[in-house]
Amino acid sequence: MVSKVACIQTSTGPDFETNWRQSEQLIRQAHAQGAALVALPEVVDFLDEGSAPFQAYAQPQSEHIAARRFSQLAAELKVWILAGSVTVRVQPAKLANRALLFDSQGRIAAHYDKIHLFDTGVVGRKASTESNTFAPGDRAVVVETPSGRLGLSICYDIRFPHLYRDLAKAGAQILAVPANFLQITGAAHWHVLLRARAIETGTYVIAPAQCGECRPGNRSFGHSLIVDPWGEVLADAGPDQVGFVMADISPQRIAEVRERIRSLSHDRPYQPATLAV
C-alpha cells in the first residue's frame, strides 16, 4: 500500500519549550494532512554552541522530557514519529546523539545512535569536534513500520555510503537522514549526496533538516528532502521556511527500480586495494 510520509523542517535553538511548540504544531498539521510517518531533524529538541550546554541539558532516555512528549503525541494522534535526534545521557559524562522512533501507540520502536561524528573543519568556519560532546554509536538499525522498513542514520552518516548499502541489504526500503547541515556544505553536497544514496540503494530517502540561523553565525541549509528510488526529488522544503513537505511511499516503485538496476545483488568479492608500485 502507498503510505504518506512527512519531513518536518525546524529552526531549533537553546530553549526546549520553544522548540517543542514548533515541532508539535508541525506534527499535528502533517498528521491532519494524512501523514502516517512524520520525521523530524537532527537535534530537534535542543541546539546550542559548545559542549557545556549539551552536558547541562542532557537527560537519560527514561527521564527525557522530549522522549516523553513525543511518545504522548504519537499515542494521541496514532501516528509514527521519528525524532531525528535528541541529546540523551547514557553515562554520567557520556552523551548520545540519538534518533528515537515512536510507534502509533507511543512506544519506542527503535533507537539509533549516530555512528559517524562530525569532527572536521569547513573552509571559512571554526572547526567542529562533535566527539567532544557525543560518543559514537556502533550499531546499524532497520525497523519495520507501516510505511515500510526504515533504515536509520543521522546527518554526517550520509558521507559513508557503505552504511546505506548495508541498510538496504538488511531490508530497508526507506532511508532516514535527519540532519543539521551547514549552509556552505549543504549548498555544495546536500542534494547530490541524498540523491546518490537513493540511486545506489533503490530506496526512498527522507531527510528532515534544520533551517535558519540556529546559532549565531551558523546558518543551517534547510532543504528538507524526500527522494524517490530513482533519485527524483519528490519534495523540497526550501532554504529558510519552517514547515513540512510530504510525499507518497510506494513499495511498487521500489520494486520497479530495483528490477531495472539490480546492483544490490551484484556484489563481487575482490582483494582490498594496495598502492601499485
Give the secondary structure arrangement, pairings included.
Layout: E1 3-9, H1 16-32, E2 37-39, H2 51-57, H3 65-77, E3 80-91, E4 94-102, E5 108-113, E6 119-120, E7 128-129, E8 142-145, E9 148-152, H4 161-169, E10 174-176, H5 183-201, E11 204-207, E12 211-215, E13 218-221, E14 225-227, E15 233-236, E16 243-249, H6 251-260
Parallel strand pairs: 1-2, 2-3, 9-10, 10-11
Antiparallel strand pairs: 1-16, 3-4, 4-5, 6-7, 8-9, 11-14, 12-13, 14-15
Helix pairs in contact: 1-3
What count of helical segments does DSSP give?
6
Question: By helix and strand content, what is the structural category?
Answer: alpha/beta
Give the class-level CATH name: Alpha Beta
Count of extended strands = 16
Query: What level of helicity do the residues show?
Result: 25-40%
Spatial sequence of strands, sheet with the most strands = 5-4-3-2-1-16
User: What's the story with the biggest beta sheet?
Assistant: 6 strands, mixed
**Per the principal axes of the C-alpha atoms, what is the gross shape?**
globular
Rg from C-alpha positions?
A: 18 Å
Which residues form runs of ≥5 with pLDDT under 50?
A: none
Element pattern in H and E? EHEHHEEEEEEEHEHEEEEEEH
Write down the overall mean pLDDT. 95
CATH architecture: 4-Layer Sandwich
Domains, number: 1
Beta-strand content: 25-35%
Terminus-to-terminus distance: 55 Å
In the CATH hierarchy, the third-tier topology is known as Nitrilase/N-carbamoyl-D-aminoacid amidohydrolase
CATH superfamily grouping: Carbon-nitrogen hydrolase
